[in-house]
Amino acid sequence: MLPRELKNRLNSIGERGEPWSTPQNAFQLLEKSPSFHTRGEFTGTPEAEGNRMANKDMPKDMYFLVKIMFFILGLGTLLPWNFFITAFVYFQSRLVTGNTTVGSSPDRNGTRVHTDEYNFNNWMTLLAQLPLLLFTLLNSFLYQWISDRTRIVGSLIGILALFILTAVLVKVEMSPQSFFSVTMVTIWFINSFGAVLQGSLFGLLGLLPHNYSSLFLSGQGMAGTFAAVAMLLSLASGADIQTSALGYFITPCVGIFISILCYLALPHLEFACYYLNRTSAQSYELEKRAELLLPDEKNGMPNGVLDFKEKSRPVKELRKASVVTVLRKIWLPALCIVLTFTATLSMFPAITANVRSAANVKQRWNDFFSPVCCFLIFSVLDWLGRSTTSYVLWPGKDSKLLLPLLVSLRFVFVPLFMLCNIPEPDRQYLPVFFKQDAWFIIFMTIFSFTNGYFVSLTMCLAPKNVLPHESKTTGVLMTFFLALGLSCGAGLSFLFKALL
């Protein structure tokens, strides 16, 4: 039976004697109508209808300002994580008391060598990712009670305050134990704010075209490059470690402040308002019309008979996105992002930061080896991988086997990195098989690029599987699975380090 709305339209444009009682005849008659094309009430496919709705009176992103702002916001979300993991030289120096390094042991010449008794990189990674997991889950409830503006601006201000505190602590003398405790607490809270911020922004990105998600993720990738370059400039300046660290931690304060300004400017841009404020009337109208054209999902036929049954569900029920329903649609991208980050965080930075150069060169290169070959290469290639999805999305959303297979293949990097040149006492059981620097650089290049590409790919594919009113729920859920993968990887890093 045809819905009343469609019957009225057909009666107004066709002769009463025409046989329009079947969906096929109805659409043939509709196609003859000028209003069918000028008003675009029904266009034959949900995709075409969505494109028409998006293009009708749609404002332009003048000077790409909204793109630039979301790129900067992406940068701001991962500045805390990247600036803390890249500053390993500073943190190791603060775990020294007098002339003795905590956990140090004499080498063959009787001098002292560093051992990571605190397991600083492991604990830092774990305490950065656990709050990300917990507060991302909490954010799935917060968004119903606290506005996007309050969550995003409040989180950015909290991150800014904690970065200022970290910069101040550079000049404060503390025992290694106290410094370690304060740093871990700071990492916990700064990443808690980051989790709320990231989940809220991903929810907004679900309302925008998919290339804005790619740019946001590219901004996140650039955060690592930004931190690595800042660290290299600090090392190259020749200043003492306190002065270098002070300048290093002031830098992200500027970046976070600019991120706050960018978010506050969004409501004043017509393009941003058009997308971010259309979650009620326009989204519902689009879905209501698209329902007339959806394939018969009950029998799984991609080109099945059109369902013209009249919908009796109220508007409120249609707008409410069921978590279970969304999960059924996005389970594959969710699984892939968990696997991607589990493989990445199990190795980086807990294992990879311990790899040392085997080249017989001056000590100066040894100081730069890890910042360049571990952190800078990872950051640049990760960013390139994320940016690639602006041009290529392969495998596509219909890939049920190839995508998880490619993602799972990244676990081959676990034994490869563990067999690289990690010196004693960090290595106790495994031999060094890939001693040359070139092996580590090749592994890091592929490892980093694939991480960025698959993260961005899965985050872009997930919203393509859901309806417009489910976009925010999709963004929050994908952020939760992202955090789950990070936490699993951080936990596994303890196991893999113990196996060294």
Automatic annotation (TrEMBL):
Q: Which top-level group of life is the source organism from?
A: Eukaryota
The terms under GO molecular function for this entry are:
uridine transmembrane transporter activity
InterPro entries with a match to the protein in the record: ENT1/ENT2 (IPR034764), Eqnu_transpt (IPR002259), MFS_trans_sf (IPR036259)
Parts of the chain that traverse the membrane? 62-91, 126-145, 152-170, 182-208, 215-239, 245-266, 330-348, 368-385, 401-419, 439-462, 474-496
Q: List locations, semicolon-separated.
A: Basolateral cell membrane
The UniProt entry's GO biological process terms, in alphabetical order, are:
adenine transport; guanine transport; hypoxanthine transport; thymine transport
Q: Identify the keywords attached in UniProt to this record, alphabetized.
A: Membrane, Transmembrane, Transmembrane helix, Transport
Range of residues in the leader sequence: none
Q: How does it sit in the membrane?
A: Multi-pass membrane protein
What would be one Pfam family of this protein? Nucleoside_tran
CC per GO annotation: basolateral plasma membrane
User: What family is reported?
Assistant: Belongs to the SLC29A/ENT transporter (TC 2.A.57) family.
The name on file for this protein is Equilibrative nucleoside transporter 2 isoform X1
